[in-house]
Amino acid sequence: MLDSIYIAYDFKVNPLQPGSEILIAELGYAGFESFVENEEGVIAYIQKNDWNSFILDHIHILSSNEFKITYEFNEIEQTNWNDEWEKNFNPIVVDKLVTVRAPFHEIPKTKYDLIIEPKMSFGTGHHETTHMMIQHILKNDFKGKSVLDMGCGTGVLAILAEKVGATQLDAIDIDNWCYLNSIENTERNNCEHISVYEGDVNLLDGKNYDSIIANINRNILLADIPNYSKCLNNNGTLFLSGFYKEDIPLIEAECNKQMLKLDEIIERGQWVSLKFIN
Predict the structure, then answer these.
(1) pTM confidence score
(2) Which of 17, 44, 47, 80 has the most CB atoms in a 10 Å sphere around its CB?
């Protein structure tokens, strides 16, 4: 797919990990749409119309003493995104049970095979937060459950939830590209029970779910947790990720206000994923 004019930032990151992972997460929140990881760091792309000279002012890792990050940026025209991610997207395996791969990769021997063509959407399983949410889904019972995947990105978590037995699923993302990409990926994986919507938490009015999956970011989660609580059925489960270990007290405090109890923590690098029950 060819797109309009973009600004490309070429970041050199040392140490490479977890520096690149943290940088990608922060850039994603700032409006960058696509990322290509390489042996030296990350190339990040943002549409020129969304760019401004202060775009990196709130990228905290750039001022961290733990990492040395340098960058250059320039304007580019009409990048073929499919070619870019095909060069850099390698399949991953989670807990020897789930493979997340592109259509052109070999068919794996794992129990669950997720075929994802991410293009510019977030959520291939490579990032720590998506990886942990996959682990949560594998460890919990989704058979016959109704599920919400909030901030669905590529739809990968909703797709896995259906494969492990969920029978009624909604996948929601505010980004039009993610919305369209999730539809493509649910069809590619022959999913029959996933409805994909473009929008935000306002779409949840009158909805109820047995499980809610939300892999977004701390501030959005803090604002939306009350809405998730209202939608959660009795004995429901809420899975949250997209934030760091130091954010746990804030997230837990907000959930406790909604009578949600912390049940499990999964850690991966500096990132965490939490399970709450009501």
Answers:
(1) 0.73
(2) 44
